[in-house]
Amino acid sequence: MLKAFFNPRGVAVVGASTKPGKVGHDIVANLKNYGYNGGVYPINPKAKEILGLPVFKNIDQLPDEVDLAVVAVAPAMVVTSIYELAQKNIMACVVVSSGFKEVGGEGTQLEKDLAKACQETGVRIIGPNCVGIMDSFQGLNASFAAGMPNKGHIGFFSQSGAMCLAILDWSLDNAIGFSKFISLGNKVDLTETEILHLLAEDEDTRVIMGYLEAVEDGKKFMKAAAEVTRKKPVVLLKSGVTSAGAKAASSHTGALAGADAAYEAAFSQCGVLRVHTVRQLFNLAQALARQPLLAGPAMAIVTNSGGPGIIAADSVEKLGMHMAGLRPETVDELRSFLPSIASVYNPVDITGGAAAELYGRSLSITAEDPNVDGLMVILSPTATVDPREVARLICEEKTNKPIFSVLMGRHSVEESRIYCMEQGMPAYDFPEDAVQAMAGMMQYRKWLNTKPKPPDLVEGKKEVVQGIINEMRAVKRREMSETEARECFKAYGINVAQSIPAATSDEAAAAAEKLGCPVVMKIDSPAISHKSDVGGVKVGLKTPDEVARAFLEMTSRVSRLKPNAWVRGVLVQEMVQGGRETIAGVTKDPQFGHLIMFGLGGIYVEVMKDVSFKVAPITREDADQMVKSINAFPLLRGVRGEPPADMAALSDAILSLASLVTDFPEVSEADINPLLVLPRGQGAMAVDARLSLSRPNGEE
Amino acid sequence: MLKAFFNPRGVAVVGASTKPGKVGHDIVANLKNYGYNGGVYPINPKAKEILGLPVFKNIDQLPDEVDLAVVAVAPAMVVTSIYELAQKNIMACVVVSSGFKEVGGEGTQLEKDLAKACQETGVRIIGPNCVGIMDSFQGLNASFAAGMPNKGHIGFFSQSGAMCLAILDWSLDNAIGFSKFISLGNKVDLTETEILHLLAEDEDTRVIMGYLEAVEDGKKFMKAAAEVTRKKPVVLLKSGVTSAGAKAASSHTGALAGADAAYEAAFSQCGVLRVHTVRQLFNLAQALARQPLLAGPAMAIVTNSGGPGIIAADSVEKLGMHMAGLRPETVDELRSFLPSIASVYNPVDITGGAAAELYGRSLSITAEDPNVDGLMVILSPTATVDPREVARLICEEKTNKPIFSVLMGRHSVEESRIYCMEQGMPAYDFPEDAVQAMAGMMQYRKWLNTKPKPPDLVEGKKEVVQGIINEMRAVKRREMSETEARECFKAYGINVAQSIPAATSDEAAAAAEKLGCPVVMKIDSPAISHKSDVGGVKVGLKTPDEVARAFLEMTSRVSRLKPNAWVRGVLVQEMVQGGRETIAGVTKDPQFGHLIMFGLGGIYVEVMKDVSFKVAPITREDADQMVKSINAFPLLRGVRGEPPADMAALSDAILSLASLVTDFPEVSEADINPLLVLPRGQGAMAVDARLSLSRPNGEE
């Protein structure tokens, strides 16, 4: 597929035009103008010649050595073209025509027809509604963009055509190069997932960079990304984060933007480096494409001015790295030749009066220090130093550690900055940009340091859960009763507080006797999911008598407030003492499926929003990380002499929950709230349980 | 002073040089080359002529019409020059010579001598160790910088000379203009405070922009900034934030960088807009200099491409503004002429095929919508639209609402971007830059909407506090006993839990009888500030007998663990039930003085670091804001049916604390922990109190 799209023997342009300025004309011109050495075959029923090339009347007349077609006809004619291309065994196709899903109405139907044509013929399609594709190494420009990217090792794809054009335009004057440039458009067939695989195979691509508004199939994407990121870094800008962004996203491409928590979790679980601005996308991608990977977080700065050195050091610490402590040998060596007023500690400030040559020596010596993992060189323009000379020395430096150069200013340094970029040295305007790229690189290093591992799945008693689900489906019920939910969690090894259902006050008193007071009483009704809102929970009932009275009071109150709710009775439950409330839950994200949540119970979740997420299924390490990554984690580890909580038991419960929903995709929501965690060695216990199912397929 | 420095009748260059490349030569050249129409008087004992100007042998020979001197002689000769200048009544001086405080050792002494010369002569000095000063409107370039800023309305000052040079260099190719450009250097005399006043007076300056590593005198600075920011926005980049940055800062200029919390609080209390990167500094300053102020947070976006529109909408929400809901009339009018596939809601997407003219119309119509406070225009390069045409239409738009233009890309839009900048329209590369500038502008609008107000001071019984302090000073004690600290807080109107000191077990039992059980017992020793660490706190003692036993146990335990601590006995204290633990405290920042802290008690402070700060003295509104701005505030407002806390009582206590330390500057630290807040109307109560004093002046 890579070959058909990017190294085709010949390219047909369906809907080629004789008129300059028309898309169908610009594509032919682009194919001719950038050194592509295969044949270019314009198709137009009326024209004889376009830009000196003979024109074909229709697809059928094309010669055999055509592997790729660019389709730029009116939207209503695109589907027919696909069938005709398939007839000629042209199986790769870029549809630039617009007027599909993005315009709604009839366009939506046209897009469905196009999808069907894909499936029936096996023709692979990029687009529709895209700008096209480019390969700088093949000189192939199968797009209507104005220009061709510089050669380079960033493989780029974008859901938005405008972002393609803007990024191309930006790159041309910044000496940023691309291997492949792919405009995804509406993604009727090839999505980001296939493109990831395609760029992963591509030898010219070292870094994959992309702009997305939504992922089409979250699970497939995660699987692909988890593989690809082991070979090459993947840097993505995903927009549509906030509600306003998401609103704009859905009016733009009709894509349903998933909740941001799911994207955040999914990207981190499959090693995707997420950035949040276009500038960050460039900053990080160019560093990854041009420099060796950081081995660790210890940075050294060589600068000719204090202020920018301070700003850089600030950013280094803020973004989770640290300033390297230089070895005494390094310090001594620097002191031996730098001016007396220079600072020979990190940041190494060679001072504004220092000549270019001192930059080179300081950089080499600092780079050799084993305490240093990565280097930043900052140049502020001064009268005494020639930035071109400094740029040359930086680019000549031989080290296997990454160097990030910052040439402050513009007027007198732009030439040198572009020189650096051309020489393969990432060069930035301001220190913060460089540090942010370092931080992204560090994140990738950490990802590579983790071992790929299949998810850990707890073996549950599937038949128990299946039985309950079957019963529910039979009566078209989607909300489990608490008893049922407890059974399901128990079937996956989660400790649940003991409880006994009771239908009468006598039964309730007997249950309390059996469990031992104090007990908790809860209303038992599948129709009532928020029990405390209707006075359906009583804690600390001290005697069987009190329990009996509470039964009458609770049931009569609930029947008054919820006259139509079917009430089975109550659950009488042992009252677990001590321990700390946590919450574990599941929601279903439209793109990525089950999203597991963990947090400290009560106000930590409700007020502080202090929760962590992962997409199921997960590994044990993922579960541990969910527990550790909440802000309130020190509370679980124990503060002020309190014993540490049983964190392993929390991970167990989270894993069980993830396994349960992985086995039963029909689960749409689940909550264990509270999941009471006891001191280390004493486990965790589900005190309240909820679980609901998705609508069965086809049911509204 | 403004006139002497920036509109002098003549300028002397002390230490002028005949050799190009020397600082003393470049200054003379800069004074000659940029249109300054006063006299330039080089001084050099040996030379006859420099750049065609006659040279004076010494300061004494200068004519009378010299108001400003630029001093570039060897550091050891600078002080003498100041006395000579004073003799000639030249009272404004820029010292560019380096070799002072920044090099340590002898330089530190030279700087002290220079400070003395200032005081003795009344000569005002900018520097030493600075690049110089420039005034683009006067054509005055009294610096050794390579170049002169474009004319514009940003007044800039910088503590770092390198930042001056880099920012000047950057501005030259970006059509960013400056009114005044001031390199502060070591700030031996004029500091950021005087410069703020000076730029506030300056008619050519609309926005003040600065780079600082530390503020010299926090109180003076805050007073000046609070005044100045009412007239003009002040945008500051303050580095040295993290520990690494602070370390680099102190090795750079010897300035002691204050804790960042103090800067953050101080800047926000006096309306300074703080930015965190150099790019943000530019982004915001150019918007404030060139556009009318935002009236509110409702933004509209006009774009020719969906992707960038989504990114922009995301950023708008993320930074605390929102996307305006357009009126139906606006929507209808847009629909009447835009292509059918355009989005007529906000973001208004006029589509990639739209001609420039549609930009202009859409922008005008959207700007007229009363629901819109500010506008962003985004242009992505496409084949159909001429960016120059769009730039012209944007610049011609007549509206009193701010417009931020984003010209995505570079190659095909740079010319248009620069055109916008030249026309006074802020123009950015990427949407996020523009939104960040909007957010800064919004913050300034909010500041202007607050009314300036003197601090609220609680009238305390000063004599009580003074008495205790006198006793402590007499015995050279710096840590108050809890009883003393309680007395001080009580003297300023803070409720303290009742307590009775007891020196024997019988006294303790009697105290418990009097207060009513249960009670709390705490060890009473000025030598022990963390009582619970030594078992010095017992809560919930239920009977006088239990109290007596606890006394013996506690005192013997403490004397075992802290054999040398003087123990007065214990405090028996009423046990306040209910309520929520908060903490209020004071620390002393070296730059800004007393810093008041508020947070929720216990783990919220220790684990979540969820606290707010203000510099004392404060207003009641400040106190309210401290309470409201912690993340856990919803807990105080009441969640899950709990009653709201007595927030007014918390503000009262915070105000009292701030008043106490304002009256007694010798207080170095204070803690009310916990400050128990009861439900609304029931007040707040200090349960534990600590207070300590600074070392008296002169004592080590």
From TrEMBL, chains A, B:
Signal peptide positions (record): none
A Pfam family hit: Succ_CoA_lig
Family: In the N-terminal section; belongs to the acetate CoA ligase alpha subunit family.
PANTHER family registered for this protein in UniProt: 3-HYDROXYPROPIONATE--COA LIGASE [ADP-FORMING] (PTHR43334:SF1), ACETATE--COA LIGASE [ADP-FORMING] (PTHR43334)
The protein's name in its UniProt record: Acyl-CoA synthetase
Residue ranges constituting the ATP-grasp domain according to the UniProt record: 486-522
GO molecular function list: acetate-CoA ligase (ADP-forming) activity; ATP binding; metal ion binding
InterPro entries recorded: AcCoA-synth-alpha (IPR014089), Acyl-CoA_Synth/Transferase (IPR051538), ATP-grasp (IPR011761), ATP_grasp_subdomain_1 (IPR013815), CoA-bd (IPR003781), Ligase_CoA_dom (IPR043938), NAD(P)-bd_dom_sf (IPR036291), Succ_CoA_lig_flav_dom (IPR032875)
Bilayer-crossing regions: none
Keywords: ATP-binding, Ligase, Nucleotide-binding
